[in-house]
Amino acid sequence: MPELPEVEVVRAGLAPAVTGATVASVTVFDERSLRRHPGPSEDFVARLVGRSFTSAVRRGKFLWLPLAPVSSKTQETRPEPHDSARFAPEAHRSPAFSAAPSEALVVHLGMSGQVLLREPGAPDDALTRIRIELSSPVHGILRMNFADQRVFGSMAIEDLTPTRDGQPGGYAGQLPVVEPVETSPALASRPPRSAPALIPRSVAHIARDPLDPAFDERAFFAALAKRRTGIKRALLDQSLISGIGNIYADEALWAARIHYDQQTGTLSRATARTLLAEVRHVLAKALGEGGTSFDAQYVNVNGASGYFSHSLNAYGQQGKPCPRCGRPIVREQFMNRGSHFCPHCQRLRR
DNA sequence: CCTCACACCTGGGTGC
DNA sequence: TGCACCCAGGTGTGAG
Questions:
Q1: What is the pTM of this model?
Q2: Nucleotide with C1' nearest the A149 CA
Q3: What tens digit of pLDDT does each residue of A236-246 get?
Q4: How far is CA A250 from the centre of its chain?
Q5: Maximum distance among all alpha carbons in chain A?
């Protein structure tokens, strides 16, 4: 499931199931899904079996499950706090976390990937490319099926490296609402916890997403001013801003009344701010509705669909009246894909 | 360095 | 029914 809201739905569904769970077995049905893994499938399996996950982290459309360091003494899984009540695990505060994860299972869903949680023995989902059987101290035995029609998605084991800005690598769950009994201004302004400042190698070049508190707005606006390209190209460039795909690009541009090929350098700072606000709004709204799904290809870890497709104003609405002005929405071929917009509300300006 | 076209893939829907 | 053709939510690479 491609864009940020859909990947976040998967991350949130996966987190409670995988956190603290140990990999019992791995079956690779299609090696093409390991395209990004640096090594043969035997290596992928060997590096995963017996390991346990510490959390589920996401930046933009990339998802990763950090692996607890291999203990030379014992394979015993440590008790960990429930995921819904914390950020990613900390590597330094408690003695139990004396060693930070140094590698992670990196998942990208591509155009059609799904991660589905199933009971053991359940019939395999169609197009399952990789099956990972987990043993969870809370949920018992679980299957994590990676299904992918077009095989643009992938799984890989990768090293984790420190983030450039020293901020958390990505989003790993809700911050706990922990109000200090005696609230001092200094304490209140400081986040109660921080995720590890680590990121998989292949994700390091991806910009933070606009829902990340550490997203660098100034750098984003500066990059827009400097670029010589259309605004939609820029929104889809994951090294500038991550998490946006074709649907939410079209939706945010419609909301901000900007033509997809408007040159980035011509946008005023105020217009760029409006656009960023609309991007955040549309992503957050879709997240609240469980993501966008048109068919069974886009589902959460239980196979259920989201509802955001009912809220689309431009994407896929060609021929229908613009919800703002009533004139028909148009679809044009752009970047080898469809661009949906209202020619009246979203005009090219020089 | 920046920008852009293209390759990588399968399966569902549509129209003849 | 069969079949050609079009469509699909993404990313990495390499040419210019």
A1: 0.88
A2: B10
A3: 999 999 999 99
A4: 19
A5: 69
Say what the pLDDT of residue A121 is. 87
Question: Distance in angstroms, CA of A265 to C1' of B2?
Answer: 14
User: Distance from residue A252 (CA) to nucleotide C16 (C1'), in Å?
Assistant: 32
Nucleotide with minimal C1' distance from the CA of A295 is: B12
- Higher-pLDDT residue of A22 and A302 is A22
Tokens of A158: 């990768």
Q: Which residues have a Cβ under 8 Å from the Cβ of A45 and sit 6 or more positions away?
A: A26, A28
> Is pLDDT at A90 greater than 50 in this prediction?
no
**Any idea which residues of A carry the catalytic annotation?**
2-3, 61, 337
What Cα–Cα distance (Å) separates residue A104 from each residue in A53, A100, A140, A158, A159?
8, 11, 22, 6, 7
Question: With 70 as the cut, is the pLDDT of residue A154 above it?
Answer: yes
Q: What is the pLDDT of residue A117?
A: 93
Name the token pair of A134: 């987990």
Q: Which residue gives the smallest C-alpha to C1' distance to C8? A: A111
pLDDT of A41-85, one tens digit each? Answer: 999 999 999 999 999 999 999 999 999 998 765 444 444 444 433
Give all strands of the β-sheet with A22-28 in edge-to-edge order.
A22-28, A128-136, A140-148, A113-118
String of DSSP letters for A57-102: EEETTEEEEEEPPPPSS--PPPP---GGGSSSPPSSSSGGG-S---
Residue owning tokens 């990059």 = A223
CA distance A179 to A198: 27
The span from the CA of A143 to the CA of A117, in Å, is: 6
